[in-house]
Amino acid sequence: MNIDRFMETYKRAWESSGEHLLASLFAADGLCRDGSLWRHSLVEANGN
Fold first, then answer.
1. Which residues of the chain are under the pLDDT cut of 50?
2. What is the pTM of this model?
């Protein structure tokens, strides 16, 4: 799946609260992160 298709599907899932549609985008054994690791990485990259 390319990024455009992923994002289109993600958008449809978000707008429809389609939990099964959203889950179909990820591996069954995948983990969901809330973005805290992303924020931490940005702080480290910016030296803050």
1. 43
2. 0.54
Matching residue, tokens 């889950």: 23
CB 12 within 8 A of CB 21: yes
Cα 3 to Cα 15: distance, rounded to the nearest angstrom: 18
d(CA 29, CA 21) in angstroms, rounded, equals 16
The predicted pLDDT at position 35 comes to: 57
Q: How many Å apart are CA 25 and CA 41, to the nearest integer? A: 24
Range of the domain at 35: 3-46
Q: Give how many domains the chain has, as a whole number.
A: 1
